[in-house]
Amino acid sequence: MKKPATVSKAKDGDGESLLELEAKYCSWGDTVHYAKELTMFSRSEGIYLYDEKDTQYLDLQMWYSAVNFGYGNTRIAAALKKQIDTLPQLACQYLHKEKILLATKLARKMEAVFGDKGRVHFNVGGASAVEDAWKITRIHTKKILSFAFMGGYHGRTFGATALTSSYRYREQYGHFGDRANFIPYPYCFRCPYGKKRESCGMYCVQQFERLFETEYYGVVNKKGDSEFGAFFIEAVQGTGGYIVPPKDYFPRLKKTLEQHKILLVDDEIQMGFYRTGKFMALEHFGVKPDVVVMGKAMTNGMNPISAIWAREELISPAVFPPGSTHSTFSSNTLGTATALEALRLMEEEDFEGRVMKRGAYFLSRLKALAKKYPQMGDVDGLGLALRVEMCQRDGFTPNRALTDAMMNIGLSGTLTAGGRSKGLILDVGGYYKNVFTIAPSLYITEKEIDTATDLFEEALKRGIAQTE
Length: 468
Fold this sequence. Notes:
The protein is built from 14 helices and 15 strands. By secondary structure, the chain is an alpha/beta fold. It folds into two domains: 18-60 and 351-467, Aspartate Aminotransferase, domain 1 (Alpha-Beta Complex); 77-348, Type I PLP-dependent aspartate aminotransferase-like (Major domain) (Aspartate Aminotransferase, domain 2). It has a seven-stranded mixed beta sheet, with helices on both faces. The chain has a four-stranded mixed beta sheet with strand order 1-2-3-13. It has a four-stranded antiparallel beta sheet with strand order 11-12-15-14. Helix 3 runs antiparallel to helix 11 (333-348). The protein is globular.
């Protein structure tokens, strides 16, 4: 494959470099400038990104789990190209077959997985779909208040920030609507109650149950009717650090929600479409959702489209009639055609078997590495949603400095494990920004996992040398 030329000057930039133009004219309000030094990428293929010098970067985050099926997946790309040549544009007030077939596949799959009939509504991005889900719950329950988890992330639109726990997402803009009541997530490595997983007796869910014992705890009246209409969850917490809850947590939580007619909204934007080895992550816990939000990997990151699925009684035309919500590009032809092909791909291949096998292997390699380095305080995961929590030498105190150092070392493209200089793409999350949230391509091989582990160890060694 021909190597791209290094681009130092911008064609229309009056002799200035691209980075000089970026510094002057691009907003810094996104996340690009989290990195110490900016890396310019020019192409992608499979599980790799390449910079303008053609340095290869092994990607362990795949665009926040949007590209589950690899960069440039030829099958999905071909569906997009075909749609461009047939029906590339159509106002969403009109029908096209790809929308109908995609909704049908999703609804039938959800019925097979969770046992309930429902319908699918499309939107553009994850945050917009979250707000559509909130509209559904408000219509049904007539309640505007919701529960959400500490550490949860549901987007940065005004409504979605009210369901996202970090104050910093609301700080500059104030409140729009009612902020959620945030409940501790079952984060066993850093239990907010100081309990031990093996002996706590599910203390965190007990504390949630206690809220409903008396009106004076602020969530129910004398009759036990709740002021809250929904609980927005992530079955495996994403931005919070890929935290996997105890197996029995969600079944017990759901029992309390059902008793008080509180709807369960499952945000699968990061974990959906086999990231954890199941079609939807909540399947691992044997719980039925009322509403599911999905996006990202639905088109393998090739088109911004999202969706909600809801039970029939919540979304039927009788209760959610035409015009209840709308977005210009919501069910666009390019997105629905691309997603339809991605769904067909998922039907034809055994992603559950592949992901669980590769995930177990990757987890074993990381746990073996953790035995050598106490700084890898917690290593855990479900399928190919893996976490490495970086700590001080005590194996517990958060070590953000080491985490940042390793992330920047990976972006420098100067790792040498296995020969020529390489880079490593690592995503940072967690409550203390000290967790590597690892989400490789679902097609990753054992050989590539070995390479990734070697690169991670080299970055770790160099990071320790820089920070200790």
